[in-house]
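Shape matters. Shown next:

___
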Amino acid sequence: MYREFDITGMACASCQHNIQKAVSKMKGVRNVNVNLVSATMTLECDDNITDQSIIDKVTSIGYGATERNNSTNLPPNKKPVKKN
């Protein structure tokens, strides 16, 4: 399952790396991408991983995270486009 989070507290590439490294070490988490410019994190993980456990991991290393409520089974570049 693909998930997205808004990240707060990042100030530099080192912050970005720290978050990516910590979250990628969680069992069942794959393909973590933290973007400093957009202050977001996308990742692929097993269905049994909760958003709260990911948020807890990010906050445990001194940053903030909130879920974006758009989790899907599709990768970020394959999400359905909403038509107006």
